[in-house]
Specification:
two-stranded antiparallel ribbon, 3 domains, globular, AB_hydrolase_fold, alpha/beta, Rossmann fold
C-alpha cells in the first residue's frame, strides 16, 4: 500500500482507508468522511465537498460553519432556480446536497442550544430536505408523535406503487444525527430492498432537542412504544415485519428499546453497545470513577482542566452535555452511566445482528457482553479496516455494511 503524507486542504490523497479529502484538522476530516458517504447516495458532490474543505481554516470552528453555510446556500439557490425552470430532478439533487451541507455547518455549533446560528442552520437543513422530499418519486410522510410524555418526529418512506404490506425498518437517529440525515443513512438502502423505512428522532436528537429542548433518556423502550403504536396503523406497514436498525449511539438505544417492545421482529446493532457506565469506568480509570461515585467536589475542576483545555475537545464534550441536558462534566458522566442494558438484555428475544467495526471507539469491549446477555439468537459480524470498513459505523464502507445487514434482515424475515 502506498501512503502519502500530503496534507493540502481540500485535495485527495491515499491513506490507510483509501482516497479521502482533508482540511488538515483531524476532527474536521472525520466529519468530511460523512459527506463522502453522502455523495454515494446522491446527497453530496465530491467536488463541492473538496472546494468547501479547501476554504476551511484548520481548528477554526467558526470557519467550518461559515464555509459549509456558504456552500449550502449557493446550492439551495441553484435548486430553486432549477425548480423555477421546471427541472425537478436537478432541483431535488440540489436540495438534498444543501440539506447535507447545512447539517455539516451546525455540527460544531451544538455546544449551546440557544445559539442563533445553530437554530438558523438546523431550520435551513430541514427546509432543504423537505423541499427535496416533495420531489421524490417514492412516498414520504412526515411523522410527529406526542404521547405518554414522549415526543418523537421523523419521516416514513415507502416505495412507490400500491400500499401492500411491507417490512419496515425503524432507524432511530444517533448522538448527532437528524431524522433528515436518516434518509441517506438508512432509508435509501431500505427502499432499494422494497422495504419501508421510518427515520425517527426522539429526546436528545434533532428537532426534539434543538427546538423542544428535550434531552436524551436511557429508557428508550418508553420512546419506542408510541412510535410503534403510530407506525403499525399506517398503510403499507406489515406489523409482523418490523426491524429496528440502531447505528452509532442508537446501537444502544435500539436494543434498549426492544427490551420493552415485543413487536420488533429483528434487531441490528451497529456497533453493539451494552453498558456505558462500564465503558466509561474503563476509560476514566478506577480512581477517577470512584471519585465520581463519591461525588468528590474537586473532581469537576480536575476533569475540566484536562478535558476542556483544548477548544476542539471542549466542543466535543459540550455538545454531548447539551444532548443530555447537563452543564458539567461530572453530571454528564453520571448521566451517561445510566445508559445500560445490564439486567435488561435478556428481555430481547428476537433475532439480533451485532456488528463490530474494527477501530470503532463506540464499541470497544461492548459487543461481547451484549451478545452474551440477549435472550434471542445472535449473529455477529466483524468489519475490518483491511476491507475498507473500519472505524465508526464502518466509516467509508457503507455498501459493505448494507450487504451484510440487509441480507441478514431479508433472511431473518424469510423474504
Amino acid at each position: 500500500m502506498t501512503t502519502s503524507t500530503k496534507s493540502t486542504p481540500g485535495v485527495a490523497f491515499t491513506g490507510d482507508t483509501g482516497p479521502v479529502l482533508r482540511t488538515g484538522d483531524a476532527s474536521f476530516d472525520a466529519q468530511l468522511n460523512r459527506s463522502m458517504t453522502a455523495a454515494m447516495r446522491g446527497s453530496a458532490d465530491l467536488g463541492e465537498v473538496g472546494a468547501t474543505a479547501g476554504r476551511i481554516t484548520p481548528g477554526d470552528l467558526g470557519s467550518w460553519l461559515r464555509e459549509w453555510r456558504a456552500t449550502a446556500e449557493a446550492v439551495r439557490a441553484e435548486g430553486d432556480a432549477s425548480l423555477a425552470a421546471g427541472h425537478r430532478v436537478s432541483a431535488r439533487r440540489c436540495y438534498l446536497r444543501a440539506a447535507e451541507y447545512h447539517r455539516q455547518s451546525f455540527f460544531f455549533a451544538r455546544d449551546d442550544l440557544t445559539r442563533q446560528d445553530l437554530q438558523d442552520a438546523y431550520t435551513a437543513h430541514v427546509d432543504a430536505f423537505r423541499a427535496a422530499a416533495a420531489l421524490m418519486d417514492h412516498h414520504v410522510e412526515t411523522v410527529e408523535i406526542e404521547r405518554d410524555g414522549v415526543v418523537a418526529a421523523g419521516y416514513l418512506f415507502r416505495p412507490a406503487g400500491p400500499d401492500v404490506p411491507r417490512p419496515t425498518v425503524i432507524a432511530p437517529a444517533g448522538y448527532d444525527s437528524t431524522a433528515e440525515a436518516g434518509y441517506l443513512d438508512a432509508a435509501l438502502g431500505a427502499l432499494e430492498q422494497g422495504w419501508n423505512c421510518l427515520s425517527v428522532e426522539g429526546p436528545g436528537q434533532g428537532g426534539v432537542l434543538y427546538r423542544r429542548g428535550l434531552p436524551l433518556r436511557p429508557d428508550y423502550e418508553a420512546v419506542l412504544r408510541p412510535v410503534v403504536d403510530d407506525l403499525v396503523g399506517r398503510p403499507g406497514v406489515d406489523p409482523a415485519a418490523l426491524v429496528l436498525l440502531g447505528r452509532s449511539f442508537a446501537g444502544y438505544l435500539a436494543p434498549r428499546g426492544v427490551t420493552g417492545e415485543p413487536r420488533i421482529a429483528a434487531l441490528v446493532c451497529d456497533p453493539g453497545q451494552y453498558d456505558f457506565g462500564q465503558a466509561l469506568r474503563g476509560r476514566l480509570g478506577d480512581a477517577v470513577w470512584q471519585r465520581l461515585q463519591d461525588d468528590d467536589p474537586t473532581l469537576e475542576a480536575d476533569l475540566a482542566g484536562t478535558l476542556l483545555a483544548d477548544p476542539q475537545r471542549s466542543n466535543d464534550f459540550r455538545w454531548r452535555m447539551a444532548a443530555h441536558g447537563v452543564t458539567t462534566l461530572t453530571d454528564y458522566f453520571r448521566a451517561l452511566s445510566g445508559f445500560s442494558l445490564a439486567w435488561l438484555a435478556d428481555r430481547i428475544t428476537c433475532p439480533v445482528l451485532v456488528v463490530e467495526p474494527e477501530g470503532d471507539f463506540a464499541s470497544t469491549g461492548q459487543a461481547e457482553p451484549l451478545a452474551a446477555a440477549v435472550g434471542g439468537p445472535v449473529t455477529r459480524h466483524a468489519f475490518t479496516a483491511a476491507e475498507g470498513a473500519g472505524g465508526h459505523c464502518e466509516g467509508l464502507g457503507q455498501f459493505r455494511f448494507e450487504r451484510v445487514a440487509h441480507d441478514w434482515i431479508a433472511d431473518t424475515l424469510g423474504r
